[in-house]
Amino acid sequence: MRTLRRTLRLRTARTALPVLAAVALLALFGGALAPQDPLAQDTAQLLHAPGGAHLLGTDYLGRDVLSRLLAGTGDSVAGAVEAVVAAMLLGIVPGIASLWLGRVFEWVSLRAVDALMTLPFTLFAIAAVGVFGNGLHQAMLALGVLLSPLFFRVTRAAALGFTQAQYVQAAELMGASRRWILRTHLWSKILPTVAVTTAHALATALLTVTSLTFLGVGVQPPAPTWGGMLASDLGFLAQQPWAPILPATLIMLTVGALNLLADAVRDAGAAGTEPARARTAAPAPAGRPHRAGPTEQPAPKEQADAPLPA
Amino acid sequence: MSPSTATATAAAHPATAATEPLLRISGLSVAYGRRPGRAAERVLDDVSLDARAGEILGVIGETGSGKTTLARAVVGLAPVVEGRITVDGEEVTGLRGRPLRELRRSGRIQYMFQDPLRSLDPDLTVGEIVGEPLTVGTGTERGERAGRVREALELVGLPAEFAERTPGRLSGGQRQRVSLARSVVTRPRLLLADEPVSALDASNRNHVLLLLDELRRSLGLAVVIISHDLSSLAGIADRIAVLYRGRLVEQGPAEDVLTSPLHPYTALLTASAPSVRREHRITPAQLRPRDPRPEWTLQPPADACVFAHRCPFAGEDCRQAPAAAAHGGPARTVACHRAADWRERLTADAL
User: Residue A280 falls within a domain, yes or no?
Assistant: First the structure.
């Protein structure tokens, strides 16, 4: 928890969070904010440049681009969030369980995760849509399944080091239950790592959602999405070479902010063992805390980075 | 455990309560091995020890002699292959699952880890750490806990406002006190302290040792102090047990063991300890094996005396490991074939 509080003090986090907050607001209220109906076609005003009644111009069917961008945010972001939440449920719970449920469960879950990690995101999502019918939910749950190994691996790796910690052993000697140990001793140490992974996974999921909608999987064409707009704009590059920049900017801003936030959380976690308050408070007797700093936690930075696919 | 249940237990065994030691280890062998069934290496071999309530037992030995394993076996962290351990008349060896958890939750046995830096969770406050055995354990009301934590902190000499700090803001000596407070907050009957002072400077060492001495008086604890350092035990231990390579080579009242050791290894330990006084002492040089030494001691067989390869007095009979034998009373045992006559040979050689 202290790591998360420390994150808020970092400049990168302060840049990223307002952007993400704005995107979240757009996702929730984008449709209501849209000045015009994002689906209304106006054949008299095809491919207009920005200005006048249409602040960002119109597309090849005469639809207002600004309204489509605003209204499309919801579907794109909701899809990514849905995928990541599914991945967290499927990854974190078995990841922690694999530490305690014995060798058989550990072996089976690890092999299942290995198998899942070999599958490519987009193809698997398309296959899932092919089997379960076209829809954003099907595609996103499929994506969630594919992202879950990430959470499984990261949670497991982060927790593994701490289950051997002496204070965990001490708690076991007090007769503490696993739930108690998890809640009191392990969770606060795993949380920063999970937070980093979540931010990265959201960025990955968002990109996958946009590529899927770009391909026309998940959301049917008339409904606006960032990826769908990008796809249709590419067809009219000759008339409107600047058009794809608009949805692309939104995608880039969101993904970039998520990555910045992930970095900030990670940096805060790496600096976490340095007792920042001790320096300003009364001089620590014997000066031990400083020496203890870097060795206290086995570098959560490397652990957080290692399992992330580029 | 509350005082009322303590008296209840004592009343239940009126005959044994007075005489039976609180901790009784008999014939304990511990072996670590990756697979059961395969010949595993014995870390402890046939160790028998007692500790009474209100008594401090010092366990001494060099690195790898099995001292920590001895304490870990008592709390169920080491695989016991033979022997029995009883605490307060109750057998604790081979406990598993629910009975083990209940014993641990009762807080009657406390184990103090060697490293106070790593055994305290850096994210919790001192109050949370000290109160954890109560929160996890049984028999304490929620409202009582804060008071008990304050009491425990006071007992180890830490001001109450330390409860709000995290371990990162404490010095080494203060951390060791927190660790101690956590161990006594449940009012245990038996406290196993693993190298409680090895990481501390001289003044902190004395503080912590005096504290242990005080605690066993005020709480009637049996304390087992594990140490590699003879001088830290000399002042406060009532009895001392010497371990060498997993064997108990000598035990007895601290004074006797330190001033007139019966085993050559103990003699070597006392001779090696720095001391200001230098009167009729044995020097370490006198206890070094001299050539020609018996051929077999260079590669001693498995059942030979464990000290034979370092012992200047090793003879043919040392090919068989000596059994621990009482010497001048039941309180003192030594495992050495030469216990009676090695001193004479020492003076004879010195001449």
Answer: no
Same domain assignment for residues B78 and B192: yes
What strands, in cross-sheet order, belong to the sheet with B222-227? B109-112, B190-194, B222-227, B56-60, B239-244, B247-253, B333-334, B325-326
Range of the domain at A164: 2-275+288-305
Among chain B residues, the shortest Cα distance to A287 is held by B171
Contact of A5 with chain B, judged by CB distance below 8 Å, is answered with no
**Same-domain pairing of B230 and B272:** no
Question: Could you tell me the strand order of the sheet in which B41-51 lies?
Answer: B41-51, B23-32, B80-87, B90-91
Structural domain total, chain A = 1
Residue type, B95: L
User: How far does the CA of residue B119 sit from the closest CA of chain A (Å)?
Assistant: 4
- Within a domain: A282: no
Residue B43 structural domain = 22-108+188-204+212-259
Chain A neighbors of B95, CB-CB under 8 A:
none
pLDDT band at B164 (very low <50, low <70, confident <90, very high): confident
pLDDT of residue A305: 39
Is residue B192 located within the same domain as residue B100? Answer: yes
User: At B100, which CATH number?
Assistant: 3.40.50.300
DSSP string, B186-251: T--SEEEEESTTTTS-HHHHHHHHHHHHHHHHHH--EEEEEES-HHHHHTT-SEEEEEETTEEEEE
Distance from CA of B256 to the nearest CA of A (A): 35
In this structure, are B73 and B43 located in the same domain?
A: yes
Task: Name which residue leads in pLDDT, A228 or A17.
Answer: A17
Q: Does B104 touch chain A (CB under 8 A)?
A: yes
Q: Does A242 touch chain B (CB under 8 A)?
A: no
Q: Tell me, what's the pLDDT at A231?
A: 78
Model confidence at A32: pLDDT above 90: no
Q: What is the pLDDT of residue A269?
A: 66
The answer to whether position A87 is within a domain reads: yes
| 8 Å CB contact of B105 and A175 | yes
Q: How many domains does chain B have?
A: 3
Q: Taking CB atoms and an 8 Å cutoff, what residues of chain A touch B116?
A: none
Mark whether B230 and B298 lie in a shared domain. no
B179 and B198 housed in the same domain = no
Whether residue B81 is predicted with pLDDT greater than 80 in this model: the reply is: yes
Tell me if chain A has a CB within 8 Å of the CB of B137: yes
CB contact under 8 A, A185 and B171: no
Which of B75, B77, B168 lies closest to A289 in CB terms?
A: B168
Closest by CA position to A115, among listed A146, A158, A151, A156: A146
B119·A174 Cβ contact <8 A: no
- In this prediction, residue B35 carries a pLDDT of 61
Among B108, B110, B111, B121, most A C-beta atoms within 10 A, so best to mutate, is: B121
Of the candidates B121, B171, B182, the beta carbon closest to that of A185 is on B121
Nearest to B261 by CA among B163, B174, B334: B334
Q: Which residue has the higher pLDDT, A7 or A297?
A: A7
Contact A167 B119 (CB under 8 A): yes
Indicate whether A286 pLDDT > 90: no
Instruction: Mean pLDDT check: name the lowest of A279-283, B14-18, B151-155.
Output: A279-283
**Between chains, do A273 and B102 touch, taking CB under 8 Å as contact?**
no
d(CA B62, CA A251) in angstroms, rounded, equals: 64
The model carries a pTM of 0.72
* Residue found under tokens 């495992």: B335
**For position A263, which CATH number holds?**
1.10.3720.10
Rounded CA-CA distance A175/B139 in Å is: 13
- Statement to judge: residues B268 and B345 lie in one domain: yes
